[in-house]
Amino acid sequence: MTCISGVLATVLPRELSLVFMVLPYLVSMIAVLYLFLKQHRRAPTVEERKRFTLSLNLLFWLFNLSGFFLGLLWTSFSEPEIWQYTIKMLFQPATLMIIGLFFIVIALPLIAVTFWFYGKQAERMALKMFGHRY
To answer: Residues 89-104: pLDDT tens digits?
Structure first.
C-alpha cells in the first residue's frame, strides 16, 4: 500500500500527495486497532495506547525516511553529485528549520489522532463489538 501511495503522490498535485503520504498510516492504524480488539476483546489501556502511538509514528517516519533515501539513490544513478548536494543542503540552518516545522506539522496531529483513536474510539468500537469497554 505504501508503494502505491508513494507512486500516486508523485503524480498528483501537492495537496493530494500529502493525503497519500498519510493514507497508509491511517489504514494501518485502523487495521492494528481492529486486530487488537478481535484478539483481546477490549479497548487498549493507557500504556498500550502510548505504545501504539509511538510505534505507529516511528514506523511512519522510518518509511518516509527510507522513501527519501531510496529516491536519492534512484536519482544518483543519473546524477552522482546529488549525494554531496543533499548533504551540503541538509545541514543548513534554514533546511533544518523547515524539516523541524514539517515534522511538527505532521507528527503532532498524527500523535493526537492516534492517541484519541486508540482511546475513545476504541472504547466505542469495543462496546459495539463486544458489549463492554474493558
So the answer is: 888 999 899 989 988 8
